[in-house]
Amino acid sequence: MTGYLDGNMLAGPLREIFAVDVTAAVGQCAACGTSGSVGQARVYADGPGLVARCPACGHVLMRLSRGPERAWLDLRGLIYLQLPVPGGGAQD
Length: 92
Ligand SMILES: [Zn+2]
Prior knowledge:
Distance between the termini: 42 Å
Number of strands: 8
Oligomer: single chain
Low-confidence stretches: none
Structural class: mainly beta
Number of domains: 1
Strand content: 25-35%
Bound molecules: zinc ion
Mean pLDDT: 89
Number of helices: 1
């Protein structure tokens, strides 16, 4: 699979949805178990939406589609997404 963009290009589109910089978040691929930052994903932008794939195995990690007044975010390719949060205080 060629023609992909660096995962850091997701910063703008995802900033509309999340208040934090999601490209710094760490996710784990549901297919191969590789963990890495969203910014390391390979993003394919030549379809109707954005598709981020695992740099290790090529599995689809997330899909982002944008309409006029809403967005669809499919994260089923990730086991988890660990997001940096401001403040540093932990809640139990
Ligand atoms: Zn993978």
